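Exercise: predict the fold of this chain.
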Amino acid sequence: MARIRKPHESQTAPQQTVWKVGKYIRLSRDDGAAVSESVVNQDKILQDELSGFFEDGLYEVVDTYIDDGTSGTTDLERQDFQRMVQDVKRGRINCVIVKNLSRAFRNSANQGRFLEEFIPLYNTRFISLYQPRLDTFLDPEIVHSLEVSITGFLNEQYAYKTSVDVRRTFQHKRERGEFIGAFAPYGYRKDPENKNALLIDEEAARTVRDMFGWFVLEGMSKAGIAKRLNGYGIPNPAAYKRAKGLRYENPHCRHNDGLWSPSTVSRMLQDPLYIGVLRQGRQKVISYKIHRRISVPEQNWFVVENAVPAIIDRETFQAAQALHQRDTRAAPGKGEVYLFSGLLRCAGCGKSMARHTAKGLVYYQCRTRRDKSKTSCAKHSIRLDAVEETVLAAIQRQIDLVGSLDQLIGELNRAPAPPSETPRLATLLERRSSELEKAADTLDGLYVDWKNGEISHEQYLRMKLRLEEQYQRLQETIVRVQSECDAASQPSGAVHPDLAAFLTRRNITGLSRGLLTTLVKVIFVHEDKSIDIEFSFADPCRPVAHKPTRPPGLPAP
């Protein structure tokens, strides 16, 4: 008869599970100031209730996952929820505890997938303290109960109703011209007495005014403006907000180096906000469950005139928009726009003229003929020096023919005067000098820290290199700003310099970009090298077009 082997008395019992717990906490903006839902309160409740689920004491709290200020309607945008999911997959935690289902989910579909599929798949325990009380280890089937399903549905309906109420409130505020953004646009700050009102931030507003002045009056390109701002050490809008202590974030913040770019300059120069026009509702989220933003057709935007205080006068803004519509190309490696950029057009096809150089001379020719086909337009071409001489002569002659000199002077005087930069440059110089002094002190202290053993030699070298680079940049900035400060402090008249020359000599003796864009709308070049000039001012006694012939002695190109 076969013998039956009895288990040895010393055989060990099955090893008990050690629960590695992750506490999940979520606070939504919709919760407002509810004390019961605060991060601190949720954590206290979880900690107090935790031991009651592990009577054998075999547990440890591995991590606490907190999504502060985020909605529960989507899992993807909750960074700590996603981190918790990854920790479950890696086996770092095998138990998740929440205060109630609404903290973990506001989307019944996501709740069902997580509890019915994800949790069993990774053999993980899920505990909810209230509404309803869940423990998938003690009762795995409870996740399929009607009570859990109804709770998920009610939580989702709460999110939907809240979303509808918030959108309706935002719509009413937009219609009234109230600002609803989280951060004030560059040049403005939120009114401390009314979060839906904007006040001018004088520090940033000075930069905005400078940008428009450089673009309209000095003929600087957008790239030239960006380079000048960077040379002054002025932080771009995103960096400026963070420097002011604001928790400003956007999808591009990680790659933002604090420098201005031509695209940022261009966007600001075209923003009617700076003349007081508030445009809102240009984007919207798809739904309360899908938080991806999409563009809204312009006819559905909320546009309110005079909703915010203006930083730029309308004449300057309109002049900037007119320049935007022109082909304002800058000379390579320079910040100034070519003298005739955006002004010259082919009289045959109406297209802008293309600039090119041959044998040391600069020419303008029809872009259609050059780029498409020689048969698509006649040969419209003219030399730069011929255009300069002819346009100057035409402007001088037109001024002589103006019926009312006072009328012309009045129109020119209404153009914005170049702002005095002396106070602004002096402030910049003071700030950069202070930063340079701090950098020097830090460099001196760094050596002492290394010698005292407070930092390693590698840390010393790395920090020293970074501080030396900063010190050199500040020195270069100070030299540049000091030079411009000296130039700006030179005495100048209150009127445009070209206008001052005209008033004293009753004529204009040279062309500048600022004067040209003020006086001239467009210049048409004909096949016979004659030109038509449409002036910006109107003389009721004379036609606005002037058609001089090509100056004698200038050979054809």
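Check your answer against the key: The CA atoms of residues 402 and 539 lie 6 Å apart.
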